[in-house]
UniProtKB/TrEMBL annotation:
GO terms for molecular function: 3'(2'),5'-bisphosphate nucleotidase activity. It comes from Croceitalea marina. Residues 18-169 form the DDH domain. Its EC number is 3.1.3.7. The keyword Hydrolase applies. Gene3D superfamilies: 3.10.310.30, inorganic pyrophosphatase (n-terminal core). It is an enzyme of class 3 (hydrolase). This is Bifunctional oligoribonuclease/PAP phosphatase NrnA. It holds the Pfam family DHH. Residues 240-315 form the DHHA1 domain.
């Protein structure tokens, strides 16, 4: 953030505001972690913020210190609507276009509130009064740490805030191994541990609380893995029937896509997951190196994200989707080497 932005934020927060904080739809660890951390921080400064998630978040994040600061728009619909309509200041975290919020989009578009965007995705929209966007950042949580630091607020970082921020940085960096993980990221994380984040416990809460059904579903996913050596590509499919058979619940397939990248020589990994209720195939893309899955998802699958991690969707069957996907690879053969 530049000094003008910092001054603007300081003056906005110098008076009592009606604040809501919004993560993207299907919020992940970084989205929920950053929103809750910011909510706890703003509360510590005397504000009274509320997080409104467009829909539910995964079980492996439910242990985060939320202190009833979070509404699920699908469950607390009228309360959430009212809060957004009355808001004077709206933070949008870990996304940069209203369309990423699903059903919240028309409410946000109609709002007269001042917007503050904190986000690390590419090609940010221009709706915010203050846009803190940096695509080189590991995570929105690292940016929220910087944001708090810019407001001279690090002494207000409680154990709860540190825990939320640590969780988001850990999940968005693949446990500190992705390209975007810098020495600065590690310094922030070290400070968060000093502020009380219990790194080992957080890791266990997120990664070591599998149900037997989830591990069996992973077995199915790995069994379905298809390797296209010619294109240094591997992909996984999961049908609705396979999900149902293993009592699928939200978040169960988190991280499955990454297994493709653990194969030697594979630079591009994809997972196609059928969602009968929404009538779509949900797709996650991951890459190693310079091949941009952000552009790939934008160009072919109605999505986007980061250079090495993105998402998209398809409205035809899994079989048709993967056939189309395979047909695209010839054009990218060189880039995928
Ligand atoms: Mn993120």
């Amino acid at each position: 953030m530049n000094s003008t932005d910092i001054a603007t934020v300081k003056s906005l927060l110098a008076k009592p505001q009606k604040i809501v904080i919004i993560p993207h739809k299907n919020p992940d660890g970084d989205a929920i972690g950053s929103c809750l951390a910011l909510a706890h921080f703003l509360k510590a400064t005397g504000q009274n913020p509320m997080v409104i998630a467009p829909n539910d978040y995964p079980k492996f994040l439910k242990w985060l210190p939320s202190d009833n600061l979070i509404y699920n728009f699908e469950h607390q619909n009228s309360q959430s609507k009212k809060l957004i309509e009355e808001a004077t200041l709206i933070f949008t975290l870990d996304f940069n276009h209203f369309s990423r919020t699903g059903q919240l989009e028309p409410l946000l578009a109609a709002s007269k509130a001042d917007f503050i965007m904190i986000d690390h995705h590419q090609q940010p929209d221009t709706y915010a009064r203050v846009t803190y966007s940096d695509v080189n950042m590991s995570s929105t949580c690292e940016m929220v740490y910087n944001f708090i630091e810019a407001l001279d607020g690090t002494d207000k970082i409680s154990k709860d805030i540190a825990t939320c921020l640590y969780t988001g940085i850990m999940t968005d960096t693949g446990s500190f191994k992705y390209y975007s993980t810098t020495s600065k990221t590690h310094r922030v994380v070290a400070n968060l541990i000093d502020k009380g984040a219990e790194n080992m416990t957080i890791h266990q809460q997120v990664f070591d609380t599998n149900s037997p059904a989830r591990l069996h579903l992973l077995g199915v996913a790995l069994n379905n893995l298809k390797i296209l050596e010619e294109y240094n590509t591997a992909y996984i499919t999961l049908s609705q029937e396979e999900l149902d058979k293993h009592n699928y619940s939200k978040g169960d397939t988190e991280g499955f896509v990454n297994y493709g990248l653990t194969l030697e020589g594979i630079n591009f990994a994809v997972i196609f997951i059928e969602n009968k209720e929404e009538g779509i195939i949900k797709i996650s893309f991951r890459s190693i190196g310079e091949f941009s899955v952000n552009e790939f998802a934008r160009n072919h699958f109605n999505g986007g994200g980061h250079t090495n991690a993105s998402g998209g969707r398809s409205e035809v069957s899994i079989a048709e989707t993967t056939k189309y996907f395979e047909s695209l690879l010839e054009n990218y053969k060189l880039q995928l080497q």
